[in-house]
Amino acid sequence: MKKHNKSAFLTQSGVIAALYVVLTLVAKVMGLDSGQIQLRLSEALCVLPVFLPAAVPGLTVGCLLANI
Question: What is the DSSP letter of 37?
């Protein structure tokens, strides 16, 4: 990989991780993540690895941070 591609890969991974964490916390604050009917906004990002290879580490780190 070229240096430019590595930085783009890391940037995309970081943005996806941050989005996952923010969406998880927003759902938690709004009370959407518990109860009989649950709406998990961050799970909509789980289709991204099909389109972006950078989404795999991004979602991994985001899920780890959101669950700590």
Answer: S
State residue 5's pLDDT score: 86
Prediction pTM value: 0.86
Q: Taking the CB of residue 22, how many other CB atoms lie within 10 A of it?
A: 14
Distance CA 68, CA 48 (A): 22
Amino acid at 38: Q
Q: Which of 56, 66, 54 is nearest to 19 (CA)?
A: 66
CB contact burial 28-60 (16+ within 10 A = b; e otherwise): eeeeebeeeeeeebbeebeebbeeeebbebbbe
